[in-house]
Amino acid sequence: MSETIPPPPSATTGAHMDAEGYAAAYARSLDDPDGFWREEARRLDWVTPPATIANWSFDPVDIRWFEDGVLNLCHNCVDRHLPARADQTAILWEGDEPGVVRRISYAELHVAVVAMALKLKTLGVVKGDRVTLYLPMIPEAAIAMLACARIGVVHSVVFGGFSPEALHGRIEDCGSRVVITADGGMRGGRLVPLKANVDAALERGCGVTSVIVVRHLGNDVPMAEGRDHWADEMAVSGDCPCEPMGAEDPLFILYTSGSTGKPKGVLHTTGGYGVWTASTFHHVFDYREGEIFWCTADVGWVTGHSYVVYGPLANGATSLMFEGVPNHPNVERFWEMVERHEVNIFYTAPTAIRALMREGDDPVTKHDRSSLRLLGSVGEPINPEAWKWYWRTVGDERCAVIDTWWQTETGGVMITTLPGAHGMKPGSAGRPFFGVEPLLVDGDGKLLEGATSGNLCIARSWPGQMRTVYGDHERFVQTYFSTYKGLYFTGDGCRRDEDDYYWITGRVDDVLNVSGHRMGTAEVESALVAHPLVAEAAVVGYPHDIKGTGIYAYVTLNAGEENSEALETELRQQVRKEIGPIASPDIIHVTPALPKTRSGKIMRRILRKIAENDFGSLGDTSTLADPSLVDSLIEGRRNR
Ligand code: PRX
Fold this sequence. Notes:
Layout: H1 9-12, H2 19-31, H3 33-40, E1 54-58, E2 61-65, E3 70-71, H4 73-77, E4 89-94, E5 101-105, H5 106-122, E6 130-134, H6 139-151, E7 154-157, H7 164-174, E8 178-182, E9 185-187, E10 190-192, H8 194-203, E11 210-214, E12 228-230, E13 245-246, E14 250-256, E15 264-269, H9 270-284, E16 292-295, H10 302-314, E17 318-322, H11 333-341, E18 345-348, H12 350-357, H13 362-365, E19 374-378, H14 384-394, E20 400-405, E21 415-416, E22 431-432, E23 438-441, E24 447-448, E25 452-458, E26 468-469, H15 473-481, E27 488-496, E28 502-507, E29 511-514, E30 517-520, H16 521-529, E31 534-544, E32 548-557, H17 565-578, E33 587-590, H18 604-611, H19 629-638
Helix pairs in contact: 2-3, 5-6, 7-8, 9-10, 12-14, 18-19
Bound molecules: adenosine-5'-monophosphate-propyl ester.
Domain AMP-dependent synthetase/ligase: 83-461
GO molecular function: acetate-CoA ligase activity; AMP binding; ATP binding; metal ion binding
Keywords: Acetylation, ATP-binding, Ligase, Magnesium, Metal-binding, Nucleotide-binding
């Protein structure tokens, strides 16, 4: 039996839901989904409330929720909170430098969003167009997203850590004609040259005609005449009403890595995503009026979309947004900010927890954390040791710790423990959220019952589900619905225990989760082989103390070329250039050859085992074209 920690009094007192409440609501969400989601949809204001609730099929794939409803998510996140919350802080921002703070009230947010929406309109952007956002973690990122939502423009946020090449690919794929960026961003005291990166991306040619540049650092950046506009110099006035949107009208595209090919443009629509983020924010964080909520994710990832912007603001919360990193200027930064801003709910990633845990308890305990009520984790499996440190040292065994499993594709949280309802098991994501029906299947798609391990699928649609891959519906069908007919396949392996708790064991496909960032091995490989000296590359993951998974790259060189330290540096630079620093390999292993079957297929299973230092269970190597290669690979691994 695994250890279960009962929810502490801070979680049960005043909770919106206890264990019986969860059981009843969960059962109803499966027995009467239309009734359940019709009620949950009332968390939002609708121009026309939906008459039809669920209308979906996984075979053939066609997913719709609330399809005849009409609403606007900017209205729901901003306008409808006025005048009641006019003076309440909507976005509480702290810059990279400690104590540099901006407070944007709901009234001010409204003014700023209207102005940004009008600026987009001035540039000729109309409903249905795509606009790419490449911004630092500043309020203008949320403002720009909401401005797009206001006028029915589909935003595509690209993480500021992606390189010009990666940005270019994402602009081209969705055909944006307008980009919103900033003169630069600051992370950990280092300048991120966002505008220069946009210039470099646009040099590669694409249909971008206008760039809006937010003045953030005040540094000089070249401005292209006729194309680039300082946001603060674009004169606009008047009102900009919220565009009434069909529930199934697209809200945003967010690119994410898969096991093959280029990153996919995950498309979310207005009604379903809006209901899912509003509902999960309320229930999962058991959000209570007036609380300060801090999700440390960047808005360039789905966590930032759902739990920095849409979920908190739809609930009228105060969302803390942080430009910097956990270790600048020192490792006390998170806890110092928790104290300064009296944060009630704190939501971060295991990689940050593990890195801070290494620094000992002092940096945490010297700060007053009595405001904290709830601690959340997201992005990768949290190991029990990190979980316990979070629970004991950060939360003083006073704050419930919730792990939350979900994906870019799912729009919001899918598996978690509800703070007031469930006991917590360190290392387990928990129980399914309302409307989520997880299934475990074996490799052949056979349904596995009871306490067991298998591949995690979801049996039925939920409102926050992605609707398609932008511009490639067939890829959507292939990626998620072809492995197991009639089921959504998550790509994750999972164990279900005797209490029906789910334990995510990690990806079972060629996707790596590096510090909570998703990376396709194929993407890193194609960046490596773009180097003129590289013949072939095979990338696998291996266990890494801080990052969870590290990137291990096996590389073969063209005939006659020799490995050197300089070459390894060049290869890392090559990956940074093609994708960004987050994809830089931790280990580069130059080898004379890669293990292949006689038919020429790379045997990744063997490469994975060797990278994991697991030499004892390489399995059958007799089908290898050159079995002796294995010894030299092991030798090479031992030397690293
Ligand atoms: O493998 C799972 C892991 O992250 C993947 C989704 O990555 P992404 O789309 O970038 O979204 C991350 C933020 C929601 C999943 O397929 N993952 C995410 N959360 C957890 C997790 N693995 C274990 N436990 C989690 N809580």
